[in-house]
Amino acid sequence: MISPREHVTARLPALLALALPVLSGLAYMASFGAPEAYLAVTFASLVIALALVVAVPQGLTTAPTQRIAATVCVALLLLPLATGPDVNGIARWLPLGPAILNSGLLTLPLLARLAAQDHEYGHWMLAAALFAALLQPDAAATFALTIAAVGLHHVTKNWRVGFIAILGFFASMYAGIHGELPAVPFVERVLVQAAGDSIPFALLLFITLLASFALMLLTGPGTRAERFALAGSLFGFAVMAVINNYPTPLIGYGAAPIIGYAVALAWPSGASR
């Protein structure tokens, strides 16, 4: 029986992967005039996320549970198409009372791990999510799925996953052309904005985001395939946020990536099959 102290120690890399970039983002937002609501929502989301990572017990999950969770993730990706809101025909946000969450950032981190856990249907999970993200359209989500598939293929050498990565590349090109919206300060293109405000802050944000990627890749939960898929999703979201007007995960304002990566980091490991 693992003790509470051992449990927290085991989860320390996951806690740092969340806390380091989010706290640096909070420092940047507080220093350069972000709305107080941004600071409050981000801090509250971090507290909830850290509590979630600590509260969920370690263990193994079964194939049926993984497939149900993946179905829920894809359904949440599709839900904005039915509920809105939409801007210029683009629908990628989940309205939850006063909060509006980006559906891709909320669901795809977990889906990346689920796809890595399920050797039989993982590529179908990625394909379904890719289709949903393409309908929105959301180039950040499609590129995050693409790099998650690349990371998963690197470990498993599964040609089906490699084929999804190729499809994802072309889907990202299409979504990038048809899904662009104006950048919102402290949300989209945060590294680019920070570089214009303060080079030291931009370096801090970059280093902590890179540290989060490394922690997920090298010391994150689950198998090597799960770690590569999860870290790949973060890499995809972050790169697209530099290239185009998409939310920057963890260092920018937004509850969805903080909660989304917390759920993915807290998710139990897959049972061996």
Low-confidence parts: none
Q: Level of helix content?
A: over 70%
Rg is: 17 Å
* Termini separation: 24 Å
Q: What proportion strand?
A: under 5%
Gross morphology is: globular
Helix count equals 12
Class by SSE composition: mainly alpha
Number of strands: 4
**How do the strands of the widest beta sheet line up side by side?**
1-4
**How many domain units?**
1
Query: What is the chain-wise order of helices and strands?
Result: HHHEHEEHHHHHHHHE
Largest sheet: 2 strands, parallel
Average pLDDT figure: 90
Task: Give a description of the structure.
- The longest helix is centred in the first third of the chain and has 21 residues, at 63-83.
- The chain is 72% helix and 4% strand.
- The mean pLDDT is 90.
- It has one domain.
- Helix 4 (63-83) packs parallel to helix 6 (122-135), helix 5 (103-117) runs antiparallel to helix 6 and helix 5 packs parallel to helix 12 (255-266).
- It contains twelve helices and four strands, in the order αααβαββααααααααβ.
- The strands form two sheets. A two-stranded parallel sheet has the order 1-4. It has a two-stranded antiparallel ribbon with strand order 2-3.
- The protein is globular, with a radius of gyration of 17 Å.
- It starts with a helix and ends with a strand.
- The chain has 273 residues and is mainly α.
